[in-house]
Amino acid sequence: MKRQKKSETDRLSDLPDHLLLHIIEFMITKYAVQTCVLSKRWKNLWKSLTNIKLLYHFDRYNGDILVNKIVSHILSSRDNFVPLHSISYVNGCRIWHDVFPFKTNILAEIMEYAASHNVQQLEIDTQTDHIRNLELPPSIFNCDSLTSLTLSLRDVYKSNTKMFPKSFNLPALKTLKLVCFTFFTGDNGYAEPFSTCNMLSKLVIYTCNLQDDAQGLCISNSKLSNLAIGTSNSHSNIHKLILSTPKLTSLTIDGIPPIFPAPSTCNLTLFEELKFDCLDGDTMGEDIFISWLHLLAKIKIITLSFKILKLMVNILKNNSSMRAQLPSFVKLKSLKVEAYPWKCDERIREMHAHHLFFFFFIFFFFNVNYDANNGASSSTIAISSPSKPSVQNPKPIIKDIF
Amino acid sequence: MAQEASSSTSSKTISLKTGDGEIFEIEASAAKQMKTVQRLIDDLGDDITIPLHNVFSKELPKIIEYYKKDITGEITKDFEAEFVKDLNDDEVKVLFLAANYLDANKLFEFLSQNIADRLESKSVEYVRKYFGVENDFTPEEESKLREERAWSFRGIKEDE
Predict the structure, then answer these.
(1) CB–CB of A8 and B100 under 8 A?
(2) Which residue of A has its CA nearest to B77?
(3) Does B136 contact A69 at a Cβ distance shorter than 8 Å?
(4) Alpha-carbon span B120 to B111, nearest angstrom
(5) CA R_g for chain A
(6) pTM surpassing 0.90?
(7) Mean pLDDT score across all residues of chain A
(8) Which of the two ends of chain A, N or C, has the fewest CB atoms closer than 10 A to its terminal CB?
């Protein structure tokens, strides 16, 4: 029915401005700006965007000089009376620092703009080797409006980190992700950076360091429920982790297998989930391994990457005294092993339900065939325990396997 | 098909009548997610067939399919990708307008993102047609604007 079709085409234009704006909010801002030439009505519509998304992939990145211009232009043209909800600057390109050696203040500019415009969510994720003397403006660490902050400022070639400020005031912050930072040592000899974040519930620390004189990292926070910590290289100097987080429910270790022993969790009454998302690295210190094994035995919900599972099995295979002292996994309710097809070169064979308390059995009993070429994100084998924990002693069975 | 009458709304179904006269059934809990429908139910009662003048038989089943998944909590990225995979740009537009009319927030947000993704690297002419926009700039005005923002016009795909 022609008449109906015609009115359908026109109807998007009948929508009020704020709904049209709603669509372009989801675009990368560079493209949203293009709408200024659609018609006079659209000329200034993009200036009311409340979310600024700056995203660069290989095929779109033209060097920082152009990026600076674009970002500056967007920030200065937008309507200052429209509240700004979020800014996201994600540069996924590998930047050749000797090809683009120039000063750039764009990150500081973005951070200052975010702070002065009461942004709620800020994400900056970029390589930073090519930026000389990157100064982080204090305003971004003293911002009443921020609820979510991601700062991933990666020096890929030089492995430098930025100093995380000794004191800061982010009273509304609920989610914090930090990559490549160094933490100051406090008076008690530990780095204890997050005790003042009263609303913090999710914290991710990746490839971070301590000052040389620190005895360890202490995460002390009254509301924190989710913690993820890890490093991509073995040069990290976090050798001890203390958790003073009464509301913690979940701990994730990612990157290489942990280089610090398992923290004590006896005061963490809500703690029930431990995830090992380790996809890199081939070794783990023996003492460190034993401490994590004992922690795993107390956990309700475990997720292991196939890589770490393999590593753990190999360590146990070669160590008979360790096998003789294995703890019983009496609390275990659910166990997941995640095999990423492109990382895994072995078939995982199916596991029989009654062996599930002993995670290292998975290596021999899984029989899940998956198509390694289908490009799916991951195959997950989830096993849940029966409601009653078994009191079966694992030791004789382990002996048979090995 | 009439469900057993029960005091809770969770097992009840609501009848919806499209602008072109067809009738579809949805669960009462799914109808709750579409605020316009819920308002009509509140006004007219849940035993009456609810008339939806601006939604038609082509798109309503798809919307019902989405909310069927939503009430069981099964909406995943994979489901959403599959949901729009075979739809062309115009079909998505029709769904978007229907979701707006029905005040179906979750679907509306998802389709906004999908339309944004589809339009992102299309030409200005294509986007004008899509939104039904008349170009009221003079050629000089338009080329001046394009020049000022030349950096935003790089990297545009050729229209299919």
Answers:
(1) no
(2) A377
(3) no
(4) 14
(5) 25
(6) no
(7) 79
(8) N
